[in-house]
Design brief:
219 residues; mainly beta; 13-stranded mixed β-sheet; three-stranded mixed β-sheet; 2 helices; elongated
């Protein structure tokens, strides 16, 4: 459309789907599983609101200098040239910067924004910063259709994996601390469950197709 026109759009991804979008200004967005995004562009800024889930944003060098604002219920991230990931959790938002820099403004935080550089990850709620740590400045595994675990506790791995499939996926509480390592293609979550069960010598109990529990193997 013509310059100066306002436009709005809503985008969704299904469970187990990763969806790529290119917005009107050339910003690339990749939505992870079960995510929802609202987009509104006007003369002042480009506004993206992550309503649910997770997304990776890549802003190539553009002639247009309007800032990009990414809002969640917990606050706002602002960037010009950057690649960064935003994931909405129940009580907080996690932002990870891979290239460039991003200014973070928690919703009820009156101070100057917090600047995050490439290789930094921050978790925040409306009141402020909850945690900040260094991470590898490489795009997240999910954006390549992979799930990567490096000595991750089984309970946390199962919780991650459950985002990519319908129904209920759990493990026996006694197994929660077992460690999982590996790189798994997300296109087939049943295969991932089978591979992890095989490695850790566990039993996969299918109550129904959508109700799966990992149990200790009976001797």
């Amino acid at each position: 459309g013509a310059m100066g026109q306002d436009w709005r759009a809503d985008y969704h991804s299904r469970i187990g789907e990763q969806r790529r979008l290119t917005l009107a200004d050339g910003t690339q967005v990749q939505l992870n599983t079960d995510s929802a995004l609202n987009v509104a562009f006007d003369q002042q800024a480009r506004r993206l609101r992550l309503v649910r889930g997770e997304m990776l944003i890549t802003r190539p060098a553009l002639a247009d200098s309007r800032p990009l604002w990414v809002d969640t219920e917990h606050g706002r991230l602002e960037s010009t040239l950057a690649q960064f990931n935003v994931r909405l959790h129940g009580q907080h938002t996690q932002a990870t910067v891979y290239q460039g820099s991003v200014a973070l403004q928690p919703a009820l935080h009156a101070y100057p924004p917090i600047l995050l550089g490439a290789g930094e990850q921050a978790s925040f709620n409306q009141q402020g910063l909850l945690a900040r740590q260094a991470v590898a400045a490489v795009a997240p595994a999910w954006s390549q259709g992979m799930l990567v675990a490096q000595g991750q506790p089984l309970a946390a791995f199962i919780e991650d994996l459950a985002r990519y499939r319908r129904g209920h996926l759990a493990c026996d509480p006694a197994l929660a601390g077992l460690r999982v390592s590996g790189t798994f293609p997300l296109e087939n979550t049943d295969k991932i469950i089978a591979a992890v069960a095989e490695t850790l010598q566990l039993e996969v109990q299918h109550f129904t197709r959508y109700w799966v529990t990992l149990k200790p193997r009976m001797a």
